[in-house]
Each structure stands twice: as C-alpha cells, then as structure tokens.
Design goal:
The structure is a single chain. The termini are far apart. A 4-stranded antiparallel β-sheet has the order 6-7-1-8, with helices on both faces. A two-stranded antiparallel ribbon has the order 2-5. It has a two-stranded antiparallel sheet with strand order 3-4. The chain has helices spanning about 1-10, 30-45, 60-65, 65-75, 80-90, 120-130, 155-175, 230-250, 260-275, 280, 285-305, 315-320, 325-340, 365-375, 380-385, 385-405, 430-440, 445, and strands at about 50-55, 95, 100, 100-105, 105-110, 140-145, 145-155, 190, 205, 210, 215-220, 220-225. A hairpin with a 2-residue loop joins strand 11 (about 215-220) and strand 12. Helix 9 (about 260-275) packs antiparallel against helix 11. The protein is α+β, with helices and mostly antiparallel strands. It binds zinc ion. Zinc ion binds next to loops.
C-alpha cells in the first residue's frame, strides 16, 4: 500500500529522472537499449565518435546510505506519515546467518535498502535519482536500476575523452558521498565508430586505474561491439540455443518421445524467447547474420514436428503454426515501436534525419518504414488504438500470401480438409510424425520404414 502511494506520487509529479527506467510501469530494458543504439547510429551518420562508459556499482542495494533517501524525500516535500514510515522502515534492521542448526550473532545493518522488499526498488530509485543532475549535456545517460551508462557523441575523440573524464570524476565523487562505489575492474569503456583510421583506444581512469576496453560489452543482456554490427550478440544467441536444441533432440524420437505440442512449447519457452529478446535493437544487423538465426528455428521445428530436414521451410512453419522468423522479427519490432511511440514517458524518440546520410537505413525510423511497407500498412496504423490487432492481422495476411504463392509441388498434400491451426491436438509422437511426413509428401515410396 505504501509502495503504491509512493509510486503514485513519484509518477504524478515526475520526480524521478526520465533516464531511469528500472522498476517503472510501462518501461523496459529494450527501450533503454534502443535509445543507446539509435543515438550511436545517429552519431555514425554524422561521422562522429561515440565514447561510452558502462559503470558497474558494487552491492548498490546494500550500501546506499539511508540519509540520502530521506533527505531526497524532504527535498521533494514528501513529509508526514509517509516519511516517518520510510525512516522507521529503514532503521533498526539486523541480520544473522543460519548454517545447519547454528545461528550466528545478529549484526546491525546501518545502510542499504532491504533485499526482497517491495518498497526497496522505489527507495533505491529515490536515493539514486540525483545522479543525472551531474551529467551535463551533450553527455547522455541511460539507467536501468543500478546499471548506469554515460555516453557522448563528439567530432574529435580527444576532446570528448576529456569531457567524459571530468564527468566520470564527478560521478565517482557523487557515488562516494552516497555510500556507493563503482567497481573499476568491472566498469568498461567503449569507443563506437565506423572509421578505420581511429585507434579506438580510450584511457578513462576511475579511482586511479584505467578502465578496460574489451572488444564487446554486455549491457542489459545485449552484446555491443564498436561498429554496432551485433555479430557477437547473434553468435552468443546461437551458442546458447544449440545447447537447448540438444535438449529437444533428447526429448524427441520418431516413434516415441514427447508429442509435437509439448515439444513446441519447450521450443517457444527456451529457444524462441531467447531469440526474441532485443530483436528491436539487434535486427539492424546484416541480413546474413539474421538469417543465420533462422537455422536454429528451423532445426527446432524439424525436431518438434518430426519431418525430414529436406522439408521446405514454409511447410514447416505451417505445420507448427509458427510465423516465418523474419516476419516475426518485423512484428516484434513494430510492436515495440507502437509501445514507445504511444508512451508519454520515454527517453527514446526516433527522429527522421536526412535520408542522404550514410547508415540512414540502420536507424529506427527507416527500419520502421521498411517494416510497414512489407506489411502493406501506413504509419497511421501505429497510432491506432487497436494497433496490436492491426499488426497481427497484417502479418498473418503477409504470411498467407507467401504460403499461397508457393509452387503446387511444394505445397502440403491435401489428404483431408486441414483445419487452421491444424496441429493434432492429441495422439502419440509416432502418429504426429507420420501425419506430418505424409503431408510434406514424404511417402511410403521413399520413406517406407517409418510406416512399418
Ligand atoms: Zn572513433
């Protein structure tokens, strides 16, 4: 109840900085990532360098000073019972460790917000809220809970580096005054640019040591590389999906094993969801890289439906009642655009820039136009109150078009009227497999052994 009231005050009076998206209704990590990547693409098109520092806070929730939270509340004129409640909520906490039947002595906790409490995220946001005031433009910041990234787009990298260093020093001071500490070994820097002449070296120091610049940086689950090609991210997805595919293989067999519906459920939970995260951002990668992900989807669907690997992919998607991966990516991308364009509280405002600039097509607005064109929609569809349904319908229509335009030889055998979605709702693994193989024209002549 206290949390709901506190959140209401914070939201209605816009007290938290817009850069902070953690623990806030209707905001997401993808939105922060989109803002970062779109800003970098905009800098690329102006032939600028983007210098970024990805900070790592050590034990942020445990070390934040209580006084910084209560002081901030007083500054915002949140007083009375709310303040007394929060003060008392944060004082007099103690903890002990229990191992077997032995319990250690109680230790008094002076700092930090309680882990696991519903109120803690909001309190952390309050204590962390003034950090944006010491990041002056043109520097920009994206924050998700305690993950802070500060970046700067500049024409000359040396001058930019000096500016960034000044802000890093200020941030280090600010965090120390709040009881927090950046980890110099885990915080990283990155120099984003497309120039081949650029050395891409950064020597930003924090607490006296130079921050490392690895070849790729993982921020909010996405691997960023200096040219924003997302090659590393895609290869990481593939790596983790291949091990998950082995799990599917173990569960499936031609004559015994889990039925198609269960296998598809596992595919959707373990593999498809993994690929879906970050699609609005990493779908700016090259078509070759994106298509290499389709292989994973196709193998998973082959395993789940039991058809032979030579089956055309479209048949496979039809049998499994799945959208082709490229259409699915477009749909997820457009859904994301609908969410952010219709949201009044967001950092991310994709802008239309000069079309003649290089890397124009990588940014969000042109990609949105291309996706809309593919689905034969105009941009008004995105602001429609029923946009989600419109997008779904348009995607399905496009899918049906593709399906019908196949040559007759590749289409499924119509042995009986096929209901849509026509997956068998019951039946054993063997029955599923046999039906799917007959439908895809793998007949007794060529594959007699499965019918025995
Ligand atoms: Zn550069």
């Amino acid at each position: 109840m206290v949390n709901a009231r506190l959140q209401k005050i914070l939201l209605s009076e816009n007290l938290l900085p817009i850069e902070q998206a953690g623990f806030q209704p209707g905001r997401s990590t993808e939105e922060q990532l989109a803002f970062l990547s779109n800003s970098i693409y905009e800098a690329f098109s102006l032939r600028h360098h983007v210098l970024a520092v990805f900070f790592d806070l050590q034990k942020a929730f445990d070390t934040l000073w209580k006084a910084s939270i209560t002081q901030q509340l007083v500054q915002w004129n949140i007083k009375g019972r709310m303040l007394i409640f929060i003060e008392q909520f944060l004082t007099g906490r103690s903890c002990s460790v229990c191992l077997g039947s032995t319990i250690s002595t109680y230790r008094h906790l002076n700092n930090g917000v309680p882990q696991g409490s519903v109120l803690s995220p909001a309190l952390f946001n309050i204590g962390f809220s003034t950090i944006c005031q010491i990041i002056p433009p043109p520097l920009k910041a994206v924050i998700f809970a305690d993950d802070l990234t500060v970046f700067l787009s500049c024409r000359q990298s040396q001058k930019g580096e000096q500016k960034l260093q000044q802000v890093v020093n200020k941030l280090a001071e600010w965090t120390t005054s709040r009881g927090l500490q950046f980890s110099a070994s885990k915080s990283t820097t990155m120099h984003f640019c497309r120039s081949r002449l650029c050395t891409r070296n950064l020597s930003i120091t924090l607490h006296g040591s130079i921050l490392p610049t690895p070849p790729t940086v993982k921020y909010l689950g996405l691997h960023f590389d200096p040219t924003l090609s997302f090659k590393k991210h895609i290869s990481e997805i593939k790596k983790s999906c291949y091990t998950r595919l082995n799990l599917l293989r173990k569960l499936a067999h031609t004559t015994y094993g889990a039925d198609t519906i269960s296998l598809l459920r596992i595919y959707r939970a373990l593999i498809r969801s993994k690929c879906d995260y970050g699609v609005p951002i990493y779908s700016s990668a090259t078509r070759t890289d994106l298509n290499s992900l389709n292989v994973i989807h196709n193998s998973a669907l082959h395993i789940a439906s039991g058809v032979f690997p030579t089956t055309p992919c479209l048949n496979l998607y039809f049998i499994c009642n799945e959208l082709p991966p490229d259409l699915r990516r477009q749909l997820i991308f457009l859904r994301f655009m609908v969410r952010t364009l219709n949201s009044d509280r967001t950092l991310f405002h994709p802008s239309a820039l000069n079309r003649h600039r290089t890397y124009y097509q990588k940014r969000f607005t042109p990609r949105m136009e291309t996706a809309l064109e593919l689905l034969r929609l105009d941009s008004s569809a995105l602001s429609d109150p029923d946009a989600a349904r419109l997008l779904q319908q348009a995607t399905e229509a496009e899918w049906t078009n593709r399906w019908k335009s196949q040559p007759p030889m590749l289409q499924l055998l119509s042995i009986f009227p096929i209901p849509q979605p026509f997956l068998l709702t019951s039946g054993s693994r063997k029955n599923n497999t046999v039906l799917h193989r007959i439908l895809t024209r793998h007949s007794r002549l060529t594959h007699s052994y499965i019918f025995s």
